[in-house]
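Incident log, structure service

09:12 report received: a user says their structure output differs between two submissions of the same chain.
09:20 pulled the input from the user's history:
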Amino acid sequence: MKVLVIGSGAREHALVRALAADPAVDAVVAAPGNPGIDAIALCRELPAGPEDGAGIAALAQEVGADLVVIGPEAPLVAGAADAVRAAGIDCFGPTAEAARLEGSKAFAKEVMAAADVPTSLSRVCTSLDQVADALDAFGAPHVVKDDGLAGGKGVVVTDERARALAHAAHCLAGPGSTVVVEEFLDGPEVSLFCLTDGTTVVPLAPAQDFKRVGDGDEGPNTGGMGAYSPLDWVPEGLTQHVVDRIAQPTIDEMRRRGTPFAGVLYVGLAITERGPQVVEFNARFGDPETQVVLARLLTPLGVVLQATARGALAEVPPLRWREQHAVTVVVAAKGYPQSPRTGGRIHGLDEVGDDAYVLHAGTARAKDGAIVSAGGRVLSVVALGDDLEQARHRAYAAVDRIELDGSHHRTDIALAAQRGEVAVAG
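09:34 re-ran on a clean worker, output below:
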């Protein structure tokens, strides 16, 4: 088959890399892609941008794509998958209606309540007075979330009431805006991607990502600074429990509503004293967790995604996984996440060695052919190892060989897990 992948980040680079390794995939096209993807697949422009569903469908027809895989959330919420399906082409990604599970946190809470899914107590607020009441009701730490898409930066978790109110005021500045105030869920977080064709649910391997910009989970939230998989510390049977108690009931509820969800349901969890609780749903693969999950997947990816798109997921044999551990470390531009500096030349990409590989996230090619930074999160460096210590050593050794003036990265990705310091309450 020929596959068209929509997106330009490290998640899409990981998807293209895995698809290109599938013997059943003849060719991979990416739009718009990035310089790293361009080295292994054909990149095409999307003149009206990745949220132009008609443009994506037209490109899919032009290149003869048998399957379209939509990476980012914004095109899904905008209805890109609907346009592709309307053109008679298989698409991996939910409809605009179903993608509301990520597009509106208030809607996701409504679905969770209907499906009896364990999650935090919350209040949907449309005024600062309502927010203030909710903050007082739940107490600190305060959790305030922009209802809509915010690129991973719409959430503030803080002990400072004034900061929580200020974030809410920023989110409510536009007409008709909504915020969700939640109780804080204590416990280590887990990301679990669940493939689903609207009926059957197949979980991938759990991963853990690191949202804060600095070591020790200091500083503001980001789109994600690193991740690792597997999670040796999670309780036995966690994945099946999440499928039975959270993912399957949610998929069943969406189908009952007449808006079946087909694609990947990203379940963000906190492992609390009360058991796994949903922190958030996303309607697409997470970044940077995808980088480590796909690094460990042995089953050819294209066949699985096509079966998901065609409603045939129940026919797919059990997924196979490498026993190795995977770690990814994000190299970010100077000033990220507030005001990342772009245009910096990147050196050392050809010197990372054989024990790691680099996935491009925010990069571009300068007129003279040099690779330069073009976003906040610039690169994802991925390594496999026989244990976490080896995977971490290989990833960080590769990071040290890359030069980008003013760049920064966390030095503690997977460190607590390596030391056996991640504890589950109860």
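09:41 both user submissions now match this output. Likely a transient worker issue. Closing.
09:42 reviewer note: The chain has a mean pLDDT of 96. The radius of gyration is 20 Å.
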